[in-house]
Structure prediction request, 335 residues.
Amino acid sequence: MNRPGLSVLLLLCAYARAETPHPPALVIHGGAGVIRASMTPEIEKAVRATLLEAVNRGYAELKAGKPALDAVTAAITVLEDDPNFNAGKGAVFTHDGHNELDSAVMDGASLKAGAVAGVRSVRNPILLARAVMEKSPHVMLAGPGAETFARENGITLVDPAYFRTERRWQQLQKALTEDKAGTAHADLETAKHFGTVGAVALDRNGHLAAGTSTGGMTDKRFGRIGDSPVIGAGTYADANCAVSATGWGEFYLRTVAAHSICMRVGLLGQPLAKAAEQVINKDIPKLGGDGGAIVLGADGSMAMPFNTDGMFRAWVGADGIAHVAIYADEDASKQ
Prediction:
């Protein structure tokens, strides 16, 4: 029996579902490898305040109807400007006493991406990575060439001294002394190469985006580049999943960690948390690495696995409320 009225009703319902805005969501991180014993109340208070500011800044973009990529870059610039994080101002020093910054962004809807590596005078590398994506035919630019591109496209450049902080300088001096003595690095952040910031976002149109920014590892040599600016390793987003990773970059590169998580979600149909758990807390530690990641699904589901004392993180989900956490035993039921 032909029922045209019912057919029209079904079409209207389908159209309405397609037009229904998705609840926006945002997750950010400020790096894994937190050592509870070394956190002073002053540093912890300052870090929590910046995480809250960053997640609120990014979420405001989503509430205003802006695309996920806007939320990602808005949140990450806040973290890049805070010297407590290893990205932008406060980045760690290379073996030769420089700050070399890496960053990447990816738009899940289009699979467009942009990345920069080894830049020394770009105030906010995440903005340059986005400019590479939007204003060049390339995906990754490095070193002086990336800075020339920044200059030509109005990206803010600063004197390299802007990035220096005494804390990071002293970390390098300690590492150099240990190098000379032939001893292992005693500082966990130096030994394990922790320190990255990142964000993943879901906008009202159901589109995902991811971004990551870092100063790399203390005492790095020979132009070393980690996983953060490598699409698929430390940063990845597609229609199903968005990932920003933080940890020992060599292992994230070898496991193509961010892409591996999203392929488990998209191709294998694994739940987001299971996919993230497998890669971050099983595959990487099996090879000798450690760290964490933030993962966001197209349905708004979140995962924040890590295998260190803590991971600086904050998020806003369907409830529209900002949450901030550092240690594993915080707000686990809300993650």
